[in-house]
Amino acid sequence: MSTERMPNPAVLLPDAMEALMAVTRAVAGAGVDGKLLALSHLRASQINGCGPCVAGGAHQARQHGATADQVHAVAAWRETPWFSGEERAALALTEAVTRLADQSDPVPDQLWDVAAKHFDQKELAALLLHIAITNAFNRLNAPTRQQAGTW
Protein backbone atom coordinates (compact mmCIF):
# COMPACT_ATOMS: atom_id res chain seq x y z
CA MET A 1 0.00 0.00 0.00
CA SER A 2 1.33 3.42 -0.89
CA THR A 3 1.33 6.19 1.65
CA GLU A 4 -0.44 9.50 1.55
CA ARG A 5 1.63 12.19 -0.17
CA MET A 6 -0.05 15.12 1.55
CA PRO A 7 -3.41 15.89 3.15
CA ASN A 8 -6.33 16.34 0.81
CA PRO A 9 -5.76 19.72 -0.91
CA ALA A 10 -9.29 20.86 -0.04
CA VAL A 11 -8.52 20.25 3.63
CA LEU A 12 -5.41 22.42 3.34
CA LEU A 13 -7.53 25.19 1.81
CA PRO A 14 -10.63 25.26 4.04
CA ASP A 15 -12.48 27.73 1.81
CA ALA A 16 -12.15 25.21 -1.03
CA MET A 17 -13.61 22.42 1.13
CA GLU A 18 -16.48 24.67 2.16
CA ALA A 19 -17.24 25.39 -1.50
CA LEU A 20 -17.17 21.68 -2.38
CA MET A 21 -19.43 20.90 0.58
CA ALA A 22 -21.83 23.69 -0.43
CA VAL A 23 -22.28 22.01 -3.82
CA THR A 24 -22.79 18.68 -2.05
CA ARG A 25 -25.49 20.23 0.17
CA ALA A 26 -27.22 21.80 -2.85
CA VAL A 27 -27.29 18.43 -4.59
CA ALA A 28 -28.62 16.69 -1.48
CA GLY A 29 -31.47 19.20 -1.30
CA ALA A 30 -32.56 18.77 -4.91
CA GLY A 31 -34.74 15.72 -4.32
CA VAL A 32 -32.71 13.00 -6.05
CA ASP A 33 -32.81 9.70 -4.17
CA GLY A 34 -29.85 9.31 -1.80
CA LYS A 35 -29.31 5.68 -2.78
CA LEU A 36 -29.07 6.63 -6.43
CA LEU A 37 -26.56 9.40 -5.64
CA ALA A 38 -24.48 7.02 -3.54
CA LEU A 39 -24.43 4.38 -6.29
CA SER A 40 -23.37 7.07 -8.77
CA HIS A 41 -20.62 8.21 -6.40
CA LEU A 42 -19.46 4.62 -5.95
CA ARG A 43 -19.35 3.94 -9.70
CA ALA A 44 -17.45 7.12 -10.61
CA SER A 45 -15.00 6.47 -7.77
CA GLN A 46 -14.42 2.89 -8.96
CA ILE A 47 -13.62 4.18 -12.44
CA ASN A 48 -11.21 6.75 -11.02
CA GLY A 49 -9.56 4.38 -8.54
CA CYS A 50 -10.32 6.54 -5.51
CA GLY A 51 -10.15 4.25 -2.47
CA PRO A 52 -11.66 6.64 0.11
CA CYS A 53 -14.55 7.50 -2.20
CA VAL A 54 -15.21 3.86 -3.10
CA ALA A 55 -15.36 3.00 0.59
CA GLY A 56 -17.50 6.04 1.34
CA GLY A 57 -19.82 5.41 -1.61
CA ALA A 58 -20.36 1.78 -0.58
CA HIS A 59 -21.07 2.85 3.01
CA GLN A 60 -23.47 5.59 1.92
CA ALA A 61 -25.24 3.29 -0.54
CA ARG A 62 -25.89 0.79 2.26
CA GLN A 63 -27.08 3.59 4.55
CA HIS A 64 -29.56 4.69 1.88
CA GLY A 65 -30.97 1.20 1.38
CA ALA A 66 -28.87 -0.31 -1.40
CA THR A 67 -28.76 -4.08 -1.22
CA ALA A 68 -25.50 -5.97 -0.82
CA ASP A 69 -26.02 -7.24 -4.38
CA GLN A 70 -26.23 -3.66 -5.69
CA VAL A 71 -23.15 -2.49 -3.79
CA HIS A 72 -21.09 -5.50 -4.87
CA ALA A 73 -22.24 -5.44 -8.49
CA VAL A 74 -22.35 -1.73 -9.31
CA ALA A 75 -19.25 -2.08 -11.51
CA ALA A 76 -21.17 -4.64 -13.59
CA TRP A 77 -24.59 -3.00 -13.36
CA ARG A 78 -25.41 -3.70 -17.03
CA GLU A 79 -25.04 -7.46 -16.50
CA THR A 80 -27.18 -7.73 -13.37
CA PRO A 81 -30.91 -7.56 -12.60
CA TRP A 82 -30.54 -5.51 -9.40
CA PHE A 83 -30.88 -1.95 -10.71
CA SER A 84 -34.02 -0.03 -11.66
CA GLY A 85 -34.38 1.85 -14.93
CA GLU A 86 -33.75 5.11 -13.09
CA GLU A 87 -30.59 3.73 -11.47
CA ARG A 88 -29.38 2.38 -14.81
CA ALA A 89 -29.92 5.79 -16.45
CA ALA A 90 -27.98 7.48 -13.65
CA LEU A 91 -25.15 4.95 -13.78
CA ALA A 92 -24.86 5.26 -17.57
CA LEU A 93 -24.72 9.04 -17.26
CA THR A 94 -22.19 8.74 -14.43
CA GLU A 95 -19.88 6.58 -16.54
CA ALA A 96 -20.16 8.83 -19.59
CA VAL A 97 -19.51 12.04 -17.67
CA THR A 98 -16.64 10.46 -15.73
CA ARG A 99 -15.04 9.22 -18.96
CA LEU A 100 -15.49 12.37 -21.07
CA ALA A 101 -12.26 11.89 -23.02
CA ASP A 102 -12.99 8.29 -24.02
CA GLN A 103 -15.43 9.09 -26.85
CA SER A 104 -15.83 11.82 -29.46
CA ASP A 105 -19.42 12.34 -28.25
CA PRO A 106 -19.04 11.78 -24.52
CA VAL A 107 -22.77 11.90 -23.71
CA PRO A 108 -24.64 10.76 -26.83
CA ASP A 109 -28.23 11.90 -27.35
CA GLN A 110 -29.55 8.38 -26.79
CA LEU A 111 -27.95 8.21 -23.34
CA TRP A 112 -29.10 11.75 -22.48
CA ASP A 113 -32.65 11.03 -23.65
CA VAL A 114 -32.91 7.98 -21.40
CA ALA A 115 -31.73 10.02 -18.42
CA ALA A 116 -34.16 12.82 -19.31
CA LYS A 117 -37.04 10.32 -19.23
CA HIS A 118 -36.23 9.52 -15.60
CA PHE A 119 -35.19 12.93 -14.29
CA ASP A 120 -36.54 16.45 -14.74
CA GLN A 121 -34.13 19.31 -15.44
CA LYS A 122 -33.59 20.14 -11.76
CA GLU A 123 -32.84 16.49 -10.98
CA LEU A 124 -30.52 16.22 -14.00
CA ALA A 125 -28.74 19.36 -12.83
CA ALA A 126 -28.30 17.82 -9.38
CA LEU A 127 -27.09 14.53 -10.85
CA LEU A 128 -24.58 16.27 -13.14
CA LEU A 129 -23.29 18.41 -10.27
CA HIS A 130 -23.05 15.28 -8.13
CA ILE A 131 -21.01 13.47 -10.77
CA ALA A 132 -18.78 16.53 -11.18
CA ILE A 133 -18.19 16.91 -7.44
CA THR A 134 -17.48 13.19 -7.10
CA ASN A 135 -14.93 13.45 -9.89
CA ALA A 136 -13.42 16.52 -8.19
CA PHE A 137 -12.97 14.61 -4.92
CA ASN A 138 -11.56 11.62 -6.84
CA ARG A 139 -9.09 13.92 -8.59
CA LEU A 140 -7.96 15.39 -5.27
CA ASN A 141 -7.71 12.07 -3.44
CA ALA A 142 -6.08 9.81 -6.05
CA PRO A 143 -2.97 11.87 -6.89
CA THR A 144 -2.31 12.59 -3.21
CA ARG A 145 -2.86 8.91 -2.35
CA GLN A 146 -5.52 9.46 0.24
CA GLN A 147 -6.23 6.23 2.07
CA ALA A 148 -9.64 4.65 2.68
CA GLY A 149 -10.61 4.28 6.32
CA THR A 150 -8.47 7.11 7.65
CA TRP A 151 -11.20 9.69 8.13
From TrEMBL:
Could you cite one Gene Ontology molecular function of this protein? peroxiredoxin activity
Pfam families to which the protein is assigned, alphabetical: CMD
Domain annotation Carboxymuconolactone decarboxylase-like: ranges: 14-95
Q: Which UniProt keywords apply?
A: Oxidoreductase, Peroxidase
Which top-rank group of organisms is this from?
Bacteria
Family annotation (InterPro entries): AhpD-like (IPR029032), AhpD_core (IPR004675), CMD-like (IPR003779)
- Has UniProt tagged this entry with the keyword Nucleotide-binding? no
PANTHER family reported for this sequence: 4-CARBOXYMUCONOLACTONE DECARBOXYLASE FAMILY PROTEIN (AFU_ORTHOLOGUE AFUA_6G11590), BLL7811 PROTEIN
Please name the NCBIfam families in this protein's record.
ahpD_dom
Q: What is this protein called?
A: Alkylhydroperoxidase AhpD family core domain-containing protein
Organism of derivation = Micromonospora cremea
